[in-house]
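Hello forum,

I keep getting stuck at the same step: I have a sequence, I want structure tokens, and every attempt I make locally crashes halfway through. Rather than fight my setup again tonight, could one of you with a working pipeline run this one for me? It's a single chain of 127 residues.
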Amino acid sequence: NSLFDFRDFKNIGERIIKKDGAIKQGEGYDINYVVNDKSEKPAASLRGPNSRRQLDIYSDQPCIQLYTSGHLDGSLSRDGYPFNANSGVCLESQSFPDAVNQEGFPSVVLKPGEVYSYRTVYEFGVY
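Reply #2:
Ran it on my machine without issues. Output:
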């Protein structure tokens, strides 16, 4: 029931505005979630509150990183558009962060001759 609980659909922007000990006001999210359910359900989903658009992410990776660009400072892109804090959201499928330094985590070391392959599907629809 914290600001990090997204098991049900919640407005990410509204949660960033709230002040909590775990999230400093306005700084946004940069957190890794372990995907415990390896069923056919999406690993993560986003919904647009006004557009009724939905993004479902399916992946065989064990984690999803939620990042909302909270530390961007408004500097301009090559095309003159500002990179503003919390102006976007990323959901990145990945392995466990810092896995190379954590003995109990699954290995992310790729040895010569081995192949690294994983699958992530981004499915767009309406709800």
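The longest strand covers residues 53-59. If your local run keeps crashing, start a new thread with the error log.
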